[in-house]
Design brief:
This protein has 17 helices and two strands. With 386 residues, the chain is mostly helical. The chain starts with a helix and ends in a 15-residue tail after the last helix.
């Protein structure tokens, strides 16, 4: 029984480690910027799919490429999701600072778009997006080089938009008719895909009778590196100093010459990149699908709130606690451990499924927040100036 309990604790800690990586990014975005980013789960999904793509490319090359693809996947997942986050911040979030409810609704809509994008993406869609961006934003760049257009400018923008859409739709129809199945076949589809871990991550070690898979040990190590890296970045780098300064007093930071808009963009990109790293870790634990992010986003928000908004130490404690509690209750380990006490054993047996365990943990968190509404380590965050 003790061995089973220790294995369950280890598995719970590894799940908590994934939540911690994701919560690090969300704590930066939500805790330091005041933005409720409901698309954070989809950024994790993008990181998982990036890992799947890198795995397939490296599998074709074989040899050392496949054995080390996970490190390349981590880098690409971080860069790709950071770029998506930067575009999201520049295109949507920057207009909604100081309005958390609007950011919630806007990013929830973006999350639905991202989910459908993964289900439907094909060559026609990718080429269409690229062509539209080239025509529309190129037209805006040329337009901005002209001055004294006055009221005519808005009409010209509308014409550029219509022409860009028309050319993009026509090009998409031409591609579909010419190449048909080759360009219209979805890359991923609605079904889940599997990521195969490198050979050296598929084994494990036994310690005092407790089986420790290398994949979960790798995730825990990755989490430690991410936490240490974020701490050093925020505490020892110039940009980390700027982020902390804007967090404390945005107006004063702007008066001292700190580029607050660049700080916002970098902060959002960094948080999004960490979500991609979390997605890479998730891909080692199970299959990946368009709804992968939705399975983690609620738990990630709970980690940030329970730990204390913007507090790194609280985020670590909350992530490991929630991840471990979810696994101990959902796997039935806690019910088995409390079998001598029949009423408690029956109670935890009722919640011994993944979905019901989340319900119980959520209820316990509600009770906890009644006692400590500011979280484990409450910390005052920044109020964004409108």
């Amino acid at each position: 029984m003790l061995t089973g309990f220790l294995e369950a604790v280890f598995n719970g800690v590894s799940i908590g480690a994934v939540l911690l990586i994701a919560a690090l990014g969300l704590a930066i975005i939500f805790g330091l910027m005041g933005v409720i980013n409901m698309a954070h789960g989809e950024l994790m999904m993008f990181g998982a799919y990036a890992t799947f793509v890198v795995q397939n490319l490296c599998k074709q090359l074989g040899g050392l490429w496949f054995e080390g693809y996970i490190f390349l996947a981590l880098i690409i997942a971080f860069i790709f999701t950071a770029a998506v986050g930067l575009i999201l911040e520049r295109g949507v979030i920057r207009y909604l600072y100081g309005r958390p409810l609007e950011t919630l609704l806007a990013t929830w809509g973006v999350s639905l778009i991202f989910q459908q994008f993964v289900r439907s993406v094909n060559w026609v869609l990718v080429i269409g997006i690229g062509l539209f961006s080239l025509l529309f934003f190129g037209g805006l760049w040329l337009l901005n080089s002209r001055t004294n257009l006055g009221r005519v400018r808005n009409w010209i923008v509308a014409v550029i938009l219509l022409l860009s859409l028309g050319v993009t739709i026509a090009a998409g129809n031409l591609l579909s008719q010419t190449y048909q199945q080759a360009v219209t076949q979805p890359w991923f589809g609605a079904q889940n895909v599997d990521v195969t871990a490198p050979t050296w991550l598929q084994a494990g070690i036994s310690l005092a009778g407790v089986q420790l898979p290398f994949a979960r040990l790798f995730i825990i190590t990755l989490t430690i590196i991410c936490v240490a890296g974020i701490y050093l970045f925020l505490q020892r780098s110039n940009w980390g100093l700027r982020i902390r300064a804007v967090t404390q007093n945005r107006s004063m930071s702007a008066c001292l010459g700190i580029p607050t808009q660049k700080v916002d963009a970098m902060t959002f990109a960094l948080g999004s990149g960490l979500a991609g790293v979390a997605g890479c870790a998730i891909s080692l634990l199970g299959s990946v699908g368009p709804n992968t992010g939705q399975n983690y986003i609620i738990d990630t928000f709970m980690v940030v709130v329970v730990g204390g908004v913007g507090n790194l130490a609280g985020t670590i404690v909350a992530a490991l606690g929630i991840g471990t509690a979810n696994f101990l209750i959902g796997s039935g380990t806690l019910a088995l451990l409390l079998s001598p006490v029949k009423p408690l054993a029956d109670l935890f047996s009722f919640f011994a499924t993944t979905s019901m365990a989340k319900v119980m943990v959520f209820a316990l968190i509600i009770v906890f927040l009644q006692w400590k509404p500011g979280g484990i380590f409450p910390q005052k965050g920044r109020t964004v100036d409108v």
